[in-house]
Amino acid sequence: MSPTGVSTDLLAAFVQVADESSVTAAAAKLGASKAVVSKRIAQLEAALRATLFSRTTRRVALTAAGEAYLEFARRALAEVAQGEERLRDLRAELSGSIRMTASVSWGQRVLAPCLPEFLLRHPGIEIELLLADRIMDIAYERIDLALRWTSTPSTPEVVSVPVATVAWVIAAAPAYLDTAGTPSAPKDLAAHHCMGYWRESSDDGWVLTRGTRRQQVRVKSRFHANNPESVAEAALAALGIGLLPTYVCAEALSSGRLVQVLPAWTPQTRFGQQITAVAAPERMRLVRNQVLLSFLRQRLGDGPAGLTATPP
């Protein structure tokens, strides 16, 4: 209904009477009674404050006002029809399955809790979530969207879209710091047991920045893990100082079970500070995938420290 009170029913009656030059013929085409069509014409003329038809006993003809308004009425009905058709297409496009992958820890802690809300909003969509701490081949394993901790795609054949930022902190249990001491500068870490998300020997070099300053420290540890949850548990057990994604340790920091070490310094990792959705171009263009990405960026993008991620 427009601000003037003109509905599509009134416009349809007007256009049909104009085309047929007869209320009776128009009523037959519209599947309505002659009285209903006449009433709609009268309502339209009242809303527009104009006489649209001149009537005789044998025919109905457009007035000058009616002729001027007819073009706009046709256009309005066409626009409404196109809008309804687009909505029908969109409903059809918002169906089907989305096969996606993410790292185990981030997928369980951050991604998975968001997905029920998305599925409730879009009942025609199904999601198949594959959590794995390895980079899956999106073509071979038929992946629609891969959420990876990287700012650049691995190959030029894929399209990437930023989804969320990531962050790390260095933290330790109070019991460990009471025994081993608290580092006051990055170089002090070399004398401590330091644990981080570990894949290869190069991960034993920690990089910290403070403004324009950058320091790299070679650290050592008796414990290596390829899962940040395990690193967090070791830190909580006072085994050493952990390099942790904040979504893993936010609660422990808040409760005091862990204490942030060197809070003025920002840890850097070789994975970057961004979660990126990676997909083949044809998969990225699918409406259901676009809608999911928009939802995830709204829920996770540039969010608080607890909404950070781990490597793919």
Tags for this model:
rod-shaped; 5-stranded mixed β-sheet; alpha+beta
What report would you give on this structure?
The chain has 312 residues and is of the alpha+beta class. It contains 11 helices and 14 strands. It has helices at residues 8-20, 23-30, 34-48, 64-93, 104-111, 115-121, 174-180, 228-236, 246-255, 281-284, 287-300; strands at 53-55, 60-62, 96-102, 125-131, 145-149, 159-165, 168-172, 194-196, 205-210, 213-218, 241-245, 259-260, 266-268, 274-279. The strands form 4 sheets. The protein has a 5-stranded mixed beta sheet with strand order 4-3-5-14-6. It has a 4-stranded mixed beta sheet with strand order 8-11-7-12. The longest helix has 30 residues, at 64-93. It is rod-shaped and about 105 Å long.
Shape: rod-shaped
The DSSP helix count reads 11
H/E element sequence: HHHEEHEHHEEEEHEEEHEHEEEHH
**Estimated helix fraction:** 40-55%
Radius of gyration: 32 Å
- Low-pLDDT runs: 302-312
Strand content: 15-25%
Largest sheet: 5 strands, mixed
